[in-house]
Amino acid sequence: METDRQSRQPQAPWPFDLRVFAAVAGLWALCLAMRAFVHIGDFDVVDPIETIVAGMRLRGDDARLVLIVEAGIFAAMAIGIFARRRWGLLLALCYMVQVVMSHLAFAIAYLPFRSEWMNVRATASQGPMMVFITLYLWIRACDLIFDSRSTAADARAPQSSDASHQAAACADSGAGDAVAVAK
Fold this sequence. Notes:
Blueprint: H1 16-37, E1 50-53, E2 56-59, H2 61-82, H3 86-110, H4 117-156, H5 162-173, H6 176-182
Antiparallel strand pairs: 1-2
């Protein structure tokens, strides 16, 4: 007995550089997890772990929790892109937009404080690279995310004849009266 297999829609080929991006995202997830879990030394006075989320600076255990969540997000990105799933690309795009907005919010919020100018400068210098990565993902993923749905819908739509197409065009354009007079 043969099982009915669903015919897969032809998928656009995924570029190699997106798989490289997924590998880098997976490695970054490992680095973030190691940074959150591995204590470099005994620090009684200050915990060196620090991160920025939504323009807020977090330190200590709060920062560790954020790093673990970020590691999970990067791991999910890597898995989704390696599995050639749209949700992996959408997650990567949404996360990178959040990173760009977070950097911008941090720079705006802490700019009035003279003691934070070095941190604002460092964050502002990272901004163009974050925007570049976000635009790169958008350019590479746009066709893979949005066009595959429209091509699948176009493949399912029945082809119409020239006569019915011309009649529909005349009816839609309001030129039907001129066509009727010409006939």
